[in-house]
Design a protein that fits this description.
The protein is α+β, with helices and mostly antiparallel strands. 21% of the residues lie in helices and 38% in strands. A hairpin with a 3-residue loop joins strand 12 and strand 13. The chain is elongated and about 60 Å long.
Length: 237
């Protein structure tokens, strides 16, 4: 049986330091599993976090089943039972939180005003892109979309996170905005992220608590990826 890791980032995205016990060590992979972690392991287009566990730099984080593995650089490895302090690279994480929320604002605006579903997305700190099934997207709409996104930032909308039983979550209309439902059938609890008054989606990533923290959103490019699919690139500043 592999250990279960408590996911601190799911309920507190602002946790940047924590203590945890080493539950398992994989010497060949130079990785350790902890009883709890604030390191996001990546997913949904958001990259994994970086930082330190004790003196060891964390260079990769991966969730396998209920276990989060932290791949470490440096010499040696901690022992099972050792207590470590985890410290996130907060500047990078916070930039990803702002970026991820900005993409949800973009998704919310495009869904609300144009009814376009998401077909893909990706992000790095401070910038990202989102693909939509949006056949009518033309250059003249890009400026309007940018202005609408920044209006939602200025509205200072609260961002709420909830953990719901799967059956309850799927009673929410339009909870899944992606063209394909990416939630595995064995997930019993669904995490939702709501930008109050704009957007409500199933999502596992980290977000800021209010849209005003995003800063300005700039649409820097858009591309046609076919007759129907369109890609919008943004930066947060």
């Amino acid at each position: 049986m592999m250990p279960t890791t408590e996911l601190l980032y799911q309920t507190d995205a602002y946790c940047r330091r924590f203590e945890a016990v080493v539950l398992a060590v994989d010497p060949e992979g130079r990785r350790v599993a902890l009883d709890r972690t604030a390191f996001y392991p990546g997913g949904g287009g958001q990259p994994h976090d970086l930082g330190h566990l004790g003196p060891w730099p964390v260079r990769a984080v991966r969730k396998e089943g209920e276990t989060v593995w932290h791949t470490l650089a440096g010499e040696g490895l901690p022992a099972v039972g050792e207590v470590l302090e985890g410290v996130l690279d907060w500047e990078r994480r916070y930039a990803l939180m702002r970026t991820h929320t900005a993409l949800h604002i973009l998704c919310g605006v495009v869904w609300r005003d144009y009814g376009a579903q998401v077909t893909g997305g990706n992000m790095e700190p401070g910038e990202g892109r989102m693909d939509f099934e949006f056949a009518t997207l033309q250059k003249e709409l890009v400026g309007a979309i940018e202005a609408k996104c920044n209006a939602e930032v200025a509205a200072a909308r609260e961002v709420r996170v909830r953990l719901l039983p799967r059956e309850e979550a799927f009673r929410i209309p339009d909870l899944i905005r992606t063209k394909i439902n990416l939630l595995p059938p064995d997930i019993a609890v669904v995490r939702t992220v709501e930008i109050v008054g704009l957007d409500l989606q199933a999502d596992g990533g980290t977000h800021v608590a209010n849209t005003r923290e995003v800063g300005s959103i700039r649409v820097v490019d858009y591309k046609s990826k076919g007759a129907i699919n369109k890609r919008i690139y943004i930066k947060v500043e």
